[in-house]
From TrEMBL:
Protein name (database record): Pre-rRNA-processing protein TSR2
Organism: Penicillium arizonense
Similarity comment: Belongs to the TSR2 family.
Comp. bias (Acidic residues): 139-161
Keyword Lipid biosynthesis in annotation: no
Polar residues bias spans: 121-131
Biological process per Gene Ontology, one example term: rRNA processing
Domain of life: Eukaryota
rRNA processing recorded as keyword: yes
InterPro entries: Pre-rRNA_process_TSR2
Signal peptide region: none
Keywords, alphabetical: rRNA processing
Length: 190
């Protein structure tokens, strides 16, 4: 579930927890990159939404869930659904954040989630304003007839702080042939 600026404010602990999970996952750079790059296929956004619901459901069905359990789920989903191996400890950080927010919502303290929501809205508004600026700027550049491309220099970007993501290679499954010479059909593992 991608949070929208028109979403109604949460009114109870469960709604705030769902919002906290959604915001945490949408703010996770590794998952955001996987979704934007469609590493999970054309339904990558839907997979993120499904993950939000699955985590919420996990807390309901297994209240003993802790940060380590949650981290395992995040790593497994990133690997299975997006072919991404997350080895930068960010899954643990997201799991810790969700567990901390769950503790707050269980106590009826919704202020941290509300702050995250307000920050998300501000960030979303900034993105749409920046998007409008970029569209206008692109139109202005199209109208220029000067050949000033040589005056612009592209500098190197420091990638030291970029998340460490490794796409897991897909394993080719060899077909199984039974005693009668028929090939066994095996569905995808989910």
């Amino acid at each position: 579930m991608e949070p929208t600026s028109t979403a109604p404010p949460a009114t109870d602990a469960a709604s705030y927890l769902d919002l906290a999970i959604t915001l945490s996952l949408n703010n996770w750079p590794a998952l955001s990159l996987a979704v934007q790059s469609n590493w999970g296929g054309p339904t990558s956004g839907d997979k993120r939404d499904w993950l939000c619901g699955a985590i919420s459901e996990m807390f309901t069905e297994r209240p003993e869930t802790d940060a380590m359990d949650l981290e395992d789920v995040l790593i497994q989903v990133m690997n299975d659904e997006f072919d991404v191996v997350v080895d930068d400890e960010s899954a643990g950080n997201v799991a810790d954040q969700i567990m901390e927010l769950k503790t707050h919502t269980d106590r009826g303290d919704f202020a941290p989630v509300q702050q995250m929501w307000e920050a998300w809205q501000t960030k979303s508004q900034s993105k749409s304003a920046a998007g409008q600026f970029q569209k206008v700027e692109a139109q202005d550049e199209d109208q220029e007839t000067d050949d000033d491309d040589e005056s612009e220099e592209g500098g190197d970007v420091d990638m030291d702080d970029a998340p460490s993501l490794v796409r897991a290679p897909r394993e080719r499954v060899e077909p199984e042939i039974d005693d009668d010479g028929f090939t066994k059909v095996v569905g995808k593992r989910r």
